[in-house]
Amino acid sequence: MKFLESLASLLFDVIERSENIRSDQQSDRDEMVAIVSVAKGVSRAERIATGSSDRTGG
Fold first, then answer.
1. pLDDT score for 55
2. Per-residue pLDDT tens over the stretch 19-37
3. Four-point Cα dihedral 29, 30, 34, 36, nearest 10
4. Are the C-beta atoms of 53 and 47 separated by less than 8 Å?
5. Residue in 25, 27, 6 with CA at minimum distance from that of residue 17
6. CB-based contacts of 47, cutoff 8 Å, min separation 6
């Protein structure tokens, strides 16, 4: 009976760790999305500031 209890405990630990890893990966992914969107905003602002956007009419 003690073996089953320790096996169950080990299984719960593994599940908990895998969930923590998964949430860490999700936060890394969210961080990458935020970095990319900021970079896109910066490049758009640079195009507008230098007058090289399509809306200026050349």
1. 56
2. 988 889 989 999 999 989 9
3. 20
4. yes
5. 25
6. 53
